[in-house]
Amino acid sequence: MRRTMLLAVVLAGLSLLFLPPTNAEQADWKTVKTKVVPLGKLECVSPAFKPKAVGGNRIDLPVAGGKGIPIKITPQKVLIDKDLNGKIKFTAAQGLMSKVFPVTLVYPNGDKVKHFYKIAKAGRGGWALIRMSALEASVEGKRIWIIDENNNGIFGEENEDGIYYAKKRWGWPFSNVTLIGGKLVELKLNESGKELSYRPYAGPTGKLDIFKEWNGKKKPQVVIIQGSTDDGAVCLNAVSKGPIDVPPGDYRFLIAYMKDVVIRGGNGGNFTVEKGGEVAAFKWGMPLKIQAAVSYDRRRKKFTVSPTPRITGSAGESYTGDFLNGNRVSGIKLQLATANGKPVGRPTKWTPTGGC
C-alpha cells in the first residue's frame, strides 16, 4: 500500500512538468533599443500631454548631480545653466517661445540620454517646459514613438506618457497593455527609456469594433478609449477595419481626432467588452444636434444665439474644431421650439451676424 502511494505521488509530480505554460510564460519578452528623435515642427497631441510649469530656481529634471537645472526667471525671459557649469546665462526663453535646446538627462542606473526641450509662455505671465523629442522603437513591425507627456524626464509612466505611430500627430496615453498595429501587446520600459521590452498579450480577450455603430461619412484617424480591466487601466487607440481583440472590462470613449475636428466623450460613451462575447460597440456619430442659448429682443423682434453653439452626437459626444471659431458655423438650420420642445414655425438657416 505504501509503495502504491509513493508511486502516485511520483506520478503526480511528473505530471506537473507537462502542464501547459501559464499566460505569463507563453511568450518571451523581446527587448529592443530605442533612439531619440527630435519632433521638429510636428505638433504631437495626446490626452496625456501636460506642460511642466517652470518656476522657482530650478527645473526639476533628472540631470547630473540630481538637483535639476538652475534657472533665473524674469518677466521677459528665462535663463538656465543648461551645461551645469555654474553659469546661468543661456537664454532658454524670451518673448512667447524659446528656441529648442538640448538637455542631457542622467538616470540612477547610469544611463545618459540627450533630449530636447523648449520653454513657452504660459497663462498669467508664467512659463512652461515642453518636450521636443521622442523615443523611437519598432514593435510588432510598427515604428512607434514614446513621448514624455508630463515633461518630467521619466519614461514608461502609465497614463502620464504617450504612444504615437512614428511621425503621426495624434497619440494615446501609455499603458502596459495596449494595441500596436491592431495587435495586443504588453510593454515594459526602463526609466530612461533606452530599453523597451514587449511581448504578445496572452490574457483573456473580447471583441470590439469601434466603428460598428459609427454613422459619420468619414472616420476619425485616432479613437482613444480607456478600460477598467483585470490588467488595470488600459488605454488603446481602437481604430481598425473590423473587430479586434481587447482585454474584457468596462470602457469609456475619451477622445477622437480627425482633420480639423476633435470629438470628446460624453456621458453616453460607456460600453462593456465581455470575454468571448458578442462584438462590443457604442452608437456615436450622426445625427448631430446643436444646442445653444437663445435670447429674444421683443422690440426689434430678433432672436440672438449666444454663445457659439454646442454640437453633440448620438452618445453625447461633443464636436469642436475650426468650424466653430469666429462663429463660422455653416450648413445648419435652427428650429425654434417652446420649453416643452414643440416646434415653432419653420426651420431657419443659421446665419451668424455681428457677435451672435
Question: Any descriptors?
Answer:
single chain, 356 residues, mainly beta, 4 domains, 8-stranded antiparallel beta sheet, 5-stranded antiparallel beta sheet, 31 strands, 4% helix, 41% strand, flat, disordered N terminus
Share of residues in helices: under 10%
How many domains would you count in the coordinates? 4
Distance from N terminus to C terminus (CA atoms, Å) equals 95 Å
Number of helices: 1
Radius of gyration: 27 Å
Structural class: mainly beta
List how many beta strands DSSP finds: 31
Tell the overall outline. flat
For the sheet with most strands, the description reads: 8 strands, antiparallel
Please state the average pLDDT score. Answer: 82
> Approximately how much beta-strand content do the residues carry?
35-45%
Which stretches are poorly predicted, pLDDT < 50 over at least 5 residues?
1-25
Plain-language structure description:
The structure is a single chain. The strands form eight sheets. Strands 19, 20, 22, 23, 24, 25, 28 and 29 form an eight-stranded antiparallel beta sheet that branches. The protein is mostly beta strands and 356 residues long. It folds into four domains: 35-133, no CATH class; 135-200, no CATH class; 206-273, no CATH class; 289-349, no CATH class. It has one helix at 2-16; strands spanning 30-33, 35-38, 52-54, 58-59, 69-73, 77-80, 90-94, 101-106, 112-121, 127-131, 133-139, 142-147, 162-165, 171-173, 177-180, 183-189, 195-200, 206-208, 222-229, 232-237, 244-246, 249-258, 261-264, 270-273, 289-291, 294-297, 302-305, 310-312, 318-321, 333-334, 348-349.
